[in-house]
Write a structure and sequence with these properties.
This protein has about 150 residues and is mainly α. The protein has one domain. It contains 5 helices and 2 strands. It is globular and about 45 Å long.
């Protein structure tokens, strides 16, 4: 079974890894700094919660189940070098950085379990994600980036 950030024990472990991340930690792949990665992951949660709009891509509703199946159900882990949405791209439309500590605090706030209900989320790319699917894909995404920085 895949880890799920909505599972209390998985959430606690994920939060400990984020708290262990240092602003000057060097990446093992990719282009982002540790601070950019924190904001990128925060923006992913904002997109999933409907708090940040996605305008760079339009996926017809009838295609979303296929995209969801390929990228949510079939993918075991995110791979280094995968492309992201413009709105999450550190060189394009990502939210501006403030300070590492403030940005990390925002990410940690969005990982609080009481912010999420049992019905899942309506994602602009994947369509409806159950709480299980949302929790698993978010854990995979955060795990990918924490591994990128060795935590």
């Amino acid at each position: 079974m895949t880890a799920n950030f909505l599972n209390p024990s998985d959430n606690t472990a994920l939060i400990a890894r984020i708290q262990a991340l240092k602003h000057n930690k060097l990446r093992q792949w990719g282009k982002m700094t540790a601070g950019q990665m924190v904001v990128h992951c925060t923006d992913q949660l904002r997109v999933s919660r409907g708090e940040k709009a996605v305008t760079s891509t339009r996926i017809p509703n009838f295609i979303k189940p296929l995209v969801k199946w390929l990228l949510i159900s079939r993918m075991k882990a995110f791979k280094p070098g995968m492309r992201t949405l413009k709105e999450l791209d550190s060189e394009a439309g990502m939210t501006a950085l403030t300070t590492f500590e403030a940005d990390r605090a925002m990410l940690l706030d969005l990982l609080k379990l009481d912010k999420y209900g049992p019905d899942g989320v309506e994602h602009p790319v994947f369509g409806h994600l159950t709480a299980q699917e949302f929790g698993e894909v978010t854990w995979k995404h955060l795990d990918h980036h924490l591994r990128q920085f060795g935590v």
